Amino acid sequence: EAGAIALLLRACLALLASPVYLLSFLGLWEPFCRKVFFPFVLDKICLIHDKKSKKHKQELFRNLPDFRGPSGALRLLEIGTGGGSNFQFYPAGCKVTCTDINPNFQESLAKNMRKNQHLQYEGFLVAAGEDLGQVPSGSVDAVVCTLVLCSVNSVSATLKEVMRVLRPGGAFYFLEHVAAEHSSWRYFWQQVCHPTWKLVFAGCCLTRELWKDLEEAKFSELKIQHISVAMPCMPIEPHIVGYGVK
């Protein structure tokens, strides 16, 4: 019965979003979404999310300096940098390489780079998480990924690339929204919203159980914490946060 109600509500939501489905069918939604809609909306969502997750991020990135390389520098690669909202949490002198599959975040990125001049910006690569071929193997001390694994095409391929670019003893930091407990109302609403949400928000999946992918990724040490980040009227409250050591 719950399944039938979910399908009915899913159809109602699709009806409400029918202009987006039509634009998608005509091939017009995706370019508009990537260039205009997603960067604009993500900027607004990130402002709320950053406030709600600030404590968790401060705690998460506190031990970043422990992973400095033998030279004393900390070389950090961020996957899915977006507008650069994580820069404020990185230690002074950190050498940052930014990557994103979508190059349309220039405005907020430039603003955050100006705000965070305690960092050294090494470059910006337009690349998907699954294909970081421009980054040499074993060349970075830390990889950071926040709110990105929900929308990559392949989580396991992305984590393979993370393992490749990290030096032995380097660390992968993550903070991601995940599927809710299956028996909960939250999960029911995630199921209802999933197809429309994925279309509107550039491939973002609501029901990924990312902790399982991380557990399969063969980190020598893995710390995962399940937390709740209260996002008003959004089905993305359950999160995981932590880091894995290669």
TrEMBL record:
Pfam families: Methyltransf_11
InterPro entries, A to Z: Methyltransf_11 (IPR013216), SAM-dependent_MTases_sf (IPR029063), Thiol_S-MT (IPR052356)
CDD domains tied to this protein: AdoMet_MTases
Coiled-coil spans in chain: none
Source organism superkingdom: Eukaryota
Domain Methyltransferase type positions: 77-174
Entry GO MF terms: S-adenosylmethionine-dependent methyltransferase activity
Protein name: MET7A protein
Species the sequence originates in: Alaudala cheleensis
